[in-house]
Design brief:
- The structure holds 2 protein chains of 2 kinds.
- By secondary structure, chain A is an alpha/beta fold.
- Chain A has 5 helices and 15 strands.
- In chain A, the strands form 3 sheets. Chain A has a 7-stranded mixed sheet, sandwiched between helices.
- The longest helix of chain A has 14 residues.
- Chain B is α/β, with parallel strands linked by helices.
- In chain B, strand 12 and strand 13 form a beta hairpin.
- The radius of gyration of chain B is 18 Å and the shape is globular.
- Classes of the chains: A alpha/beta, B alpha/beta.
- Chains A and B meet through loops of A and strand 5, strand 6 and helix 8 of B.
């Protein structure tokens, strides 16, 4: 693995402050669903890479697609890069979702807002996925998802699908599944952990945190764990290296 | 042939580039990117007598040309370190410097004694971490405390002792002299500068710990000045660090008076940067026709590269 300069092949604004960027990289075939990239700013004053999840992989083209939200100056800089521009990336990083283990089971993919993108490539690796996606109001990636997979939508303002959050949609539409893969804000993950306990099914959550190194060295991006972690020997696991995907039972989401 | 070998307290390093504690774990993660044998030394993440949980998150935030961190010295404790991390590092042809932390003198000594019979080249005593309430910086800002903990460590240590100094002091020369009179074999500086960032969207602190240690190129001129002052106040060698991100940056520290340098935050921007810096120093020396890196150490205060003031 090494940091490399990728070439941007496509860049598109797909919703307010939400962009889709496609990059030609050397490692497309290595990517596992749910992994992420460290993306570096060209401005030397912004030292730290931005962790961005991989939304899709095109093995024929050797490209990866990132769908990201402008959250600050770094991501704003990325959004201004046109096709043909170079951008430094490191990856693929993290563990990804356990798609092998659940390939032939009914997997409920639960995404909240900008947590939705990594679930798209994940769904493509499963035989029987069903989506429950939640947005504030404006949707994105929805044509890609609902065009290929059974999809349930919730919006906070009720403009589309169930009015409320994604868990309201799951309960309201009685979406059954063998296992849940989820990515989204922490309150959503916390609620899903509770729900999966009630429903008696396993739940895997993809987490995020402020990162520095992205490779497991600096211990900046830890999550509290329920039991002592096998690497750290304390109740902390590294989101970048041991995650970002964890069995919800193993992490303390309070 | 250009000589890149440097000697710190009787320990010979193949080149003057090492990693800064806390940015490099115990080398395992970066060992996937390059051969650690290319480094003069690996300085480990701080190790305590027992596992430390560290601070709550967020532990990290970016600032202009730098970052704040408040990890709080999370570490697996000396037992795991000796059993798992040391054997990994010992596979490489590089020097091993173990950074030692503690809440009390006793805790530091426990680690120092535990390492006495281990194959470790040097100890770096962390008396300058700004992110733990007891120990750390509490020892590092009072010259009398620095001298007494240095003495206590020296009385037990089997390896040469590097005292890592804090920049959060009025006069770094006093801290440097205190460590020297306590018997330190070398000094390393600077640790991070205490800082704070407010998240204005939430109207609260960006870090859970409220304050954090500032590192990265933003602090480099401060670090170069302090390395210059400290290295001219003591006779023992100084290891310089603080925002080094290129060979040119490293050369500034050497010319200010550092015998060796550590690369920290820059590892997060480029996992291979430390090797590139080691190579870049050698190329600079070749370009300048300088036969030995030791010739440039402290040259800035000594008439410059060409002997003119």
């Amino acid at each position: 693995m090494k940091k490399e300069t990728a070439r941007i092949t496509a860049q598109e604004c797909i919703a307010t402050d939400i962009y889709s960027m496609t990059l030609r990289v050397s490692f497309a075939e290595e990517v596992k669903p749910g992994q992420f990239l460290s993306v570096y700013s060209a401005d030397g004053a912004r030292l730290l890479p931005r962790p961005i999840s991989i939304c899709d992989v095109d093995l024929n083209e050797g490209t990866v697609r990132l769908v990201y939200r402008i959250a600050g100056k770094g991501t704003a800089e990325f959004s201004k890069l046109a096709p043909g521009c170079a951008i430094d990336v490191l990856g693929p990083l993290g563990n990804g979702f356990p798609v092998e283990e659940f390939r032939n089971q009914r997997v409920l993919l639960v995404g909240g807002g900008i947590g939705i993108p990594p679930l798209y490539y994940t769904a493509k690796s499963l035989s029987d996925p069903v989506f429950a996606v939640g947005y504030r109001s404006e949707t994105y990636l929805l044509p890609d998802i609902s065009g290929q997979f059974e999809t349930h939508v919730a919006t906070e303002d009720g403009s589309l699908g169930t009015k409320g959050n994604v868990l309201d949609a799951i309960r309201c539409e009685r979406i059954g599944a063998d296992v849940i893969f989820a990515c989204g804000p922490k309150p959503m993950l916390r609620a899903l952990k509770e729900y999966s306990k009630e429903a008696g099914i396993r739940c895997f959550v993809s987490m995020e945190e402020r990162m520095a190194c992205g490779v497991g060295a600096c211990l900046g991006c830890v999550t509290r764990t329920v039991k002592q972690d096998a690497h750290s020997f304390v109740k902390n696991a590294r989101i970048c290296k041991d995650g970002p995907v964890f069995d919800a039972e193993e992490v303390d989401l309070t | 042939m250009t000589g890149t070998c440097v000697n710190i307290a009787g320990v010979s390093l193949k080149n003057p580039v090492m990693t800064a504690s806390g940015t490099f774990g115990s080398g395992m993660e970066y060992g996937e990117f390059f051969d650690l044998s290319a480094l003069g030394a690996v300085v480990t993440k701080g190790v305590a007598s027992v596992p430390w949980q560290g601070n709550p998150t967020p532990r990290i935030c970016e600032t202009a040309s730098g970052m704040l961190n408040a990890i709080g010295l999370q570490n697996p404790g000396i037992d795991v370190f000796v059993r798992r991390d040391l054997p990994f590092l010992q596979k490489y042809d590089t020097r091993i410097i173990v950074n030692v932390c503690g809440h009390s003198v006793e805790e530091y000594l426990e680690v120092v004694e535990r390492l006495a019979d281990e194959n470790v080249d040097m100890l770096e005593i962390n008396i300058s971490c700004p992110n733990v309430k007891e120990g750390g910086i509490a020892f590092g800002t009072d010259p009398r405390a620095i001298e007494s903990i240095t003495k206590a460590v020296k009385a037990k240590a089997k390896q040469p002792v590097i005292m890592k100094l804090s920049p959060n002091v009025t006069d770094i020369r006093e801290a440097a002299k205190a460590a020297e009179s306590g018997g330190a074999d070398a000094l390393s500086l600077i640790n991070t500068l205490t800082g704070m960032k407010i998240d204005i969207e939430r109207g609260t602190f960006a870090l859970a710990n409220r304050t954090g240690g500032l590192s990265g190129p933003a602090i480099r001129p401060v670090a170069v000045r302090m390395v210059y002052e400290a290295s001219h106040a003591v006779k023992i060698p100084v290891i310089g660090m603080g925002g080094i991100a290129s060979a040119e940056d490293a050369l500034e520290f050497l010319m200010a008076g550092a015998r060796a340098v550590s690369v920290g935050t820059a590892n997060f921007h480029d996992p291979c940067i430390s090797v590139k810096i080691a190579d870049g120093i050698e190329k600079f020396l070749e370009r300048k026709g300088i036969r030995d890196v030791n010739e440039i150490v402290g040259c800035a205060g000594n008439g410059g590269l060409y002997g003119t003031v």
